[in-house]
Design a protein that fits this description.
The protein is an alpha+beta fold. Helices cover about 30% and strands about 20% of the residues.
């Protein structure tokens, strides 16, 4: 399992690699099952290494309505998160909060994720849903 600074989770299966992505701020659960042959240990380790060490920050950042990434602005305003903390918004996005750096704070990761799970409706989102959201249709 891996976690972003915003609390997004990527769950990995021992044989096929990435299995599930959870976008905590929005309550999205995105299945990423890769049907196919069982991966070798080296193949799985290579994918995991690529996720953890080589991923483009733009892929794990949040964009405001002005389409400017938030991570660098929140980092400058609030400082870095630690191994057990995440950035979150007050109020939470699922409760009508805004994607604004001044609304961000640093929270205990497990506690914040549990609260988001309790207060936000979870939605299974597939690739087609993501495409419709991205192109606005």
């Amino acid at each position: 399992m891996s976690r972003s600074a915003f609390g997004d989770l990527q769950v990995w299966g021992p044989q096929t690699g990435s299995r599930l992505a959870i976008t905590a701020q929005y309550g999205w659960v995105v299945p990423t099952d890769r049907l196919g042959p069982v991966m070798s240990d080296d193949g799985r380790n290579d994918r995991l290494y690529a996720l953890l060490m080589c991923q483009d920050r733009r892929n794990v950042d949040l964009d405001r309505a002005d389409e400017k990434p938030l991570f660098d602005r929140i980092l400058a305003l609030r400082g870095p998160v630690g191994p057990d903390t995440i950035y979150g918004f007050v109020p939470a996005l699922g409760l009508g909060g805004a994607l604004r750096p001044d609304r961000a704070g640093i929270f205990d990761g497990p506690v914040r994720l549990e609260l988001l799970a309790e207060f936000s409706e979870r939605r299974i989102v597939d690739k087609e849903d993501l495409l419709h959201m991205w192109i606005g249709q």
